[in-house]
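RECORD TYPE: protein structure
NAME: Haloacid dehalogenase-like hydrolase domain-containing 5
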Amino acid sequence: MTGIAPSPGPQAAPTFGFLLDVDGVLVRGHRVIPAASAAFRRLADRRGRLRAPVVFVTNAGNCRRHDRARELSGLLGLEVSPEQVVLSHSPLRLLSRFHERRVLVSGQGPVAENARSLGFRDVVTVDELRLAFPLLDTVDLERRPKATPPPTLGFRPIEAVVLLGEPVRWETSLQLILDVLLSHGSPGGVPDATPYPHLPVLACNTDLLWMAEAGTPRFGHGTFLLCLESIYRKVTGRELIYEALAGKPSLLTYRYAQHVIQQQARARGWHAPIRSLYAVGDNPMSDVYGANLFHRSLRPGVPGDAETCEAILVRTGVFGPRTASDRPFHGPRDFPDDPGLARAAHVVRDVDEAVRLVLRKEGWETD
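PREDICTED:
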């Protein structure tokens, strides 16, 4: 029989917080995982409010933050505010030095709206670029111009490329992104030489795979990035350079999530420092790897930094009950293949077991 401690008062403010993945931990597609409902009943007080700060850190990026918050609220049966949701592209808000540049944005869904909400002011989508230069998109015979269009005049050069998430037509996005990089932002002309270093590329969500309702994992944006890297290397003989990577497992995302946790605690009147963070996820190569990388970077005693970040791996998503322990490295190209970083501090059945483990460690629940 498990006993749950009474809701802490001001004298017992939480000194820990949760960084919760969403897909494969709380939901599978549009279906809530039953353990998630149990976990949040355990985390809620008698008034239905969370007893500790929780941030939902997801590598999803082809959506709006308030839409994701509304969806989670409905699935989990509690109010989730947009401020509690960290999408893969959320940390790009911090990269203000790029916000005034003219950027090509790739992804699907409300890509232009998402880019502008992050601070980018001069946004061009892949579809807009395709319409401006109709001769560039030729893989699909049905989309080729039936007659030679007049040359495009007055197009201002692209100054950076922002990859928010996996697009729908990969062949179109791969071709046009490459055209922009090889032409230094002016894809209508013929460059004298291949520019290198190329224009800045900001990429979000490097997950090779993710878990939806299908029985096996699906391609993620990391698979698209792998294609782009391979094509660029094959065409130029050089490596594609990322100016910044956002989304798990990047440190940029975990530092941003820690900031959001602290904001949430202050908003609830919890003034005790957050000393321990618990990152719960289903993907060893993003959730666990990122949490461990972040833990190594923490500076105990420095204001604003937690003392620890423990990775808890659940078996309800990419890492399942029959997942082999000797899987090849699926992490992003720019992160070292360090087996220790992909090793969780705890491996549990589901998110409810993860929450119970944390509450026991923190003395809030007893067996």
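COMMENT: The first strand starts at residue 3 and ends at 4.
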